[in-house]
């Protein structure tokens, strides 16, 4: 495997993702991790990531110097951007804020061969993102490539097994980026490509069996991809009699969602599906509430209370494990410089609930997806027979439709929104647009506008449609919905949902807007 040390770059996770794409296992650790012999077991090479920091800042994160001793002794090290600059600085070179900052595409050319560029044309368009540049190479380093602006783009110290690049091969806009990472991993490090779906599945199955050791397991089901895949994995690894799946119907779910969830779980072989009809317990306290934070608080509290109560009421044994759908990306604190191997910080209703805390303290938590990226989870889901409709489902927030009805929530409004949203999503699927979109949904606005129906003036609700493209939900661009589709979808909704009189399309990006309206 390869170790990736993270100095806080937005794209560190992509490095790991790309490397796994060609079958090499990679693990991301905080940049200042002390490199112990134990950590090095099975490690064939180390990558130092980029960073929002400057190496000249007093408190910028620093790699353990042992890495460079290991390199000199034969363990290949690749520095990317900040990683290269650190490497340079620690070997007596110089790095300075440059007059010529490079952001985005930049053509580079290498003037001597290096195994990193094996099979790649001498000149190609790379992806840059740096303010500091290398002014003087570190001891033993040679400039192998330069950008069109005359800035060093690759430096290597072949005798010390170190190489660094100023550009970001992990970013998809970088030509030959994947090949460069591949050259490093497979040729320079001689890492083996053995990370395959079959292998992951076998490892996870084995791990679930070993960890739970005959004890029952409880999993809270949200209806989303992650919890459904965990359910599938548990049911595959264990006797279904041991697997308790609990789904709380908040009354704020999408149209027919509860039935669909139950059907999916049944198809996976579940025998203990606990559907908790908690609609009144959510909707009653929400009555008359319009403040978004207050809504979230009420919903969060209700989840906690109901979980606690139902686990006991339904006779789920006290010594049962709690399975969670935590992903690898949830474990890595991103974008904050030197990350701690962070606690789960997903904005999710389960975090911090007494049930989770209690189980964690008792050592009764299992997280079968904790080493996987989202697309790996999807691939596993498909492999274990979960339908595309579930595996490729858009994300849905824990508070559900409550945050898509600005202002006061009523049962009538929920029913209107469920219908309109269902038409919208079905239309996107029928038109082949759904999979191009990261998240799409409708919002029922607290506004009535005038319309005509026959001879009468009628005041109907205004419905906003949102569709965005995004990589991770942190930033998002509006999806440029083809005009004809938009017009037809709008007409379908106003024809079929009588209470909606007007449809608008939300064209805001994030930032400054958020994805949800509340
Ligand atoms: P925003 O609106 O913050 O949304 O741009 C980013 C992503 O997070 C989802 N989201 C939530 N998920 N509880 C959740 O579990 C919440 O309170 C919540 N608020 C937003 C949102 O759907 C989008 O995918």
Automatic annotation (TrEMBL):
GO terms for cellular component: cytosol. It catalyses: XMP + L-glutamine + ATP + H2O = GMP + L-glutamate + AMP + diphosphate + 2 H(+). One of its GO terms (biological process) is asparagine biosynthetic process. Its EC number is 6.3.5.2. The active site is at 81 (nucleophile), 168, 170. It comes from the Bacteria. Pfam families: Asn_synthase, GATase, GMP_synt_C. InterPro entries: Asn_synthase, Class_I_gatase-like, GATASE, GMP_synth_C, GMP_synth_GATase, GMP_synthase, GMPS_ATP_PPase_dom, Rossmann-like_a/b/a_fold. The keyword Nucleotide-binding applies. GO terms for molecular function: asparagine synthase (glutamine-hydrolyzing) activity; ATP binding; GMP synthase activity. Signal peptide: none annotated. Residues 195-393 form the GMPS ATP-PPase domain. Keywords: ATP-binding, Glutamine amidotransferase, GMP biosynthesis, Ligase, Nucleotide-binding, Purine biosynthesis. Pathway: Purine metabolism; GMP biosynthesis; GMP from XMP (L-Gln route): step 1/1. ATP binds at residues 222-228. Catalyzes the synthesis of GMP from XMP. Homodimer. This is GMP synthase [glutamine-hydrolyzing]. It comes from Spirochaeta africana (strain ATCC 700263 / DSM 8902 / Z-7692).
